[in-house]
Design goal:
Layout lengths: L12 H9 L21 H4 L14
């Protein structure tokens, strides 16, 4: 069977992978990091803590 590869970017790549696995026709997914400067980085090396603000500083 002839297949095609596409490369997509997403925030939480495990969530993105889970979403794409649910789509009919998707045969395989693989997640990882791209365009960095560290070869084979660990999760700890690239993890960023989310920005958390007190409710009084955010107007809704």
């Amino acid at each position: 069977m002839k297949t095609k590869d596409i490369y997509l970017a997403g925030g939480c790549f495990w969530g993105t992978e889970h979403y794409f696995k649910q789509i009919e026709g998707v045969l395989e997914t693989e997640v990882g990091f791209a365009n960095g400067h560290t070869e084979n980085p660990t999760y700890k090396e690239v993890y960023r803590t989310p920005l958390v603000l007190p409710p009084s500083s955010v107007a809704i």
